[in-house]
Amino acid sequence: MNHTTTEKGIPRDSAHREDALVELRNPHDFGRYFTLGIRIADEDAAISAAADYIEQVENGLGSWFEAGFRAPVRNDDAGKPTEVRDLADVIVSALLITRPAPDGVFALPENAAIHQHLVDAYPSAAAIAAARLTGACAGAAE
């Protein structure tokens, strides 16, 4: 879900921006699978905008790293999850990784879009990331 948000932003005309992309859990014999869902208003304009967005998202990204952060789940050699990170932690981490330098320049040009998409989609996580940076800078100055 966040992988998609970082690259494509959030769906336009979404009534609930932080809830526009939803995680659908699918229990299966071999574990739990996840499907990315998009919550849209039941209006022709919203449906049309969502269809355009879905078409862009279908191609996706090649890896979580391309989206600015490591995968939210680590597996052992047998494929069993050994660490599952909280969604808020994943987003805050991505915001910190993709942030600009103190001079406002991004290490990688594509990080500018990734960072802004995350700030737009997850304002509460953006506030947490900003507070952590402020705290870290204050600690470094002492």
Describe this structure in words.
By secondary structure, the chain is α+β, with helices and mostly antiparallel strands. The chain is built from five helices and four strands, in the order H-E-E-H-E-E-H-H-H. It has a two-stranded antiparallel ribbon with strand order 1-2. Strands 3-4 form a two-stranded antiparallel sheet.
Give me a quick take on this structure.
With 142 residues, the protein is of the alpha+beta class. The chain has five helices and four strands, in the order αββαββααα.
Supply database-style keywords.
16% strand, 5 helices, globular
Query: Which percent range describes the beta-strand content?
Result: 15-25%
Structural class: alpha+beta
The proportion of residues forming helix, as a percent range, comes to 40-55%
Please compute the radius of gyration using only Cα atoms: 17 Å
Total DSSP E strands: 4
Summarize model confidence as the mean pLDDT: 76
Calculate the terminal CA-CA distance, rounded to whole Å: 39 Å
In DSSP terms (H or I, runs of 4 or more residues), the helix count works out at: 5
Topology:
Layout: H1 2-8, E1 21-28, E2 31-38, H2 44-57, E3 73-75, E4 81-84, H3 87-97, H4 109-121, H5 123-141
Helix pairs in contact: 1-4, 3-5, 4-5
